[in-house]
Every structure is written in C-alpha cells, then in structure tokens.
Amino acid sequence: MRLALVGFGTVGQGVAEAVAMKKDLLFDRFGTELKIVAAFDSRTYAHDPKGLKPLDLVARKQAGKSLGKTRPKSVAEMLPEMDYDVLVEMTPTNIKDAEPGYSNICSALKCSRDVVTSNKGPLALKYRALDDLARRNGVELRFEATVGGATPIINLSRELLLAEKVESMKGILNGTCNFILSRMGEERLPFEYVLKEAQEMGYAETDPSYDIDGIDSASKLAILANAIMGLDVTYDDVRRTGIRKVTQEAVELAAREKKVIRLIGEVNGGGVEVSPRMVPTGHPLSISGTLNVLHMHTDLAGAITVVGRGAGRKETASAIMSDLVGLLKRNACLLNGKVK
Prior knowledge:
By secondary structure, the protein is of the alpha/beta class. It is built from 13 helices and 13 strands. Helix content is 42%, strand content 21%.
C-alpha cells in the first residue's frame, strides 16, 4: 500500500519511524507492506514511485535539511499528479478555516484515494462535507489520530461497538489541561505557576490558548459527536469555557467535598459543551496527569470507559498506524475473502 505523507513534523516523522519499525510484522500479517512514495513538509517534497526510505527521510529532517525539491505549487494541486493509494494528512490544525488540510483531503478523496488524518481542523469544521465526499467516491476517511492519540476511541466505537447506540459521552480530551488541574489540586499550586511548569516540561506551548481556552477539547468533541453519535455539529456549535478562571479557592472547595475539578467535554440531549466541572474523587473522569479518558453510556453494554495517552510522537503515530492497518485488513478481505 503506497502512502503519500503530507506534513513531516513530529507526527510525520513518528509515522515514518513506525512504518519502518512494523515492516516485517505487517508483511507477515497481510502479505504486503506500507511503502512511502511521497513525503511533503512545509516547503519541499520527496517523491519516488519505487518507495522512499522512511528512516532516511527522518534523518534528513533531524539534521535540519529539507526533504528534497522545493514544491512548485500547493500539495493539493500536486496530489492528483501522483500515483499513491492513501493520503496521510498531518499538517497542523487550523480551527479558523481548516486549511491547508481541508484542500489536501478533498484533493485525495476526489481522486478516489483513501485518507488517514491527524488534523482536527477539517473534521471539526467540515465533517459532514468530507464524509459525504468520501462516500460518493467509494473510499474511506479515517481519523483516529484526531482524538485521544493512543486512546482508541473512534475505531472502538465505529467497529467493535457497531451494534451499540451511544446515548451520551463525556470525557477529558486535553492532557495539558488535565496536568494543570491535577497539579493545582494535588500540590495546592496556583494556576499561573503550574501553567509555567507545563510550558517548561513541554506540555503547553508558549501561547497556551489552544489548550487552556478549551479550543482543542471543543474540536475533538465536535468530531466525536459526529463520528460516534451521528450528529451534525461543528466546532462553532460547542459551548466552550476554558480553565483560565479556575482559582485555587475553587480547587480547595472541591477537595473539601471530596471532588476534583476537571475540564470535561460532554455530548448529550442538551447539546455539546466543554467546561470545568467538579468530579467525585474515584470517578473514571477524576484521572490525573496527562491522560485522556472518554466515558460513554450505551443502550446495551451500559457504561464503557477508555483511558490512554492523548498526545505525543509515538502515541499519534500509533493511532495513524491503527487506521492504516484497518485499510490493509479491508484490502485483504476484498482480495482474499478472509484475513489469515
């Protein structure tokens, strides 16, 4: 299966490393391999129909070099000219207009290519349009890596829980906020001090707005609402309150009531909302550190909770690889009627 990787930063390099690492395992399982035939960074690209060496691409980037030639035009314009099977779209999330990820994904889908993406913007803003486009062209759009990193939320719900009706969901979808709130509660430290600590540890960016204002959580919640519960919402439909105004006094009040404060995203009959909430100590949503968790209630199985690491090079690569394996499995079923 031939891959075109678009976006070759931390996530893209992690995927290239995973492709190299899992080469033998996938060949033993499916009788084929994942072959990177094109890779794009922000300005340059490398292309070889016979296949590029994944670790050589990573080494070039880590040495501060470009991938290869300067791009003569946009990635979306170049993709129709290339021969590949799956677009792996990993450009940074843009929650304002979803570009360039949206155009890249549309370009591939219109050419009847499968797409795997970690980019939240296109799915949070234009989920229904992309889902319809994929269906019209008879291909798959897979996006496990957009929510929860190594926490297998979407594939679990859409495949293993296919017979279930998910009636409601609530969860912690941002590890940075969870780290900050955990530290405030456990160490009785003020917000600004813990935020600075999170930035020094690499959990929060220099401009932490995307995390602490709930933008990241709201984007993920919109994707889950559409993908798992069949709603038709966008990021703009999510009621959003971040954690900037969570005070030490509020944290201590919660502790006296044997509760903790967490940034919770919830989808139910009342709508879609992200906001700080008090959670009883010991509840599945009271987890500490940088973990993500989703607590679903279904009509048959009842309560189901999924916990895992929500971000990181290997974690996001793991989610992308799970989607690629899903496509390999589909192809094997189509060709052989079964998977050995």
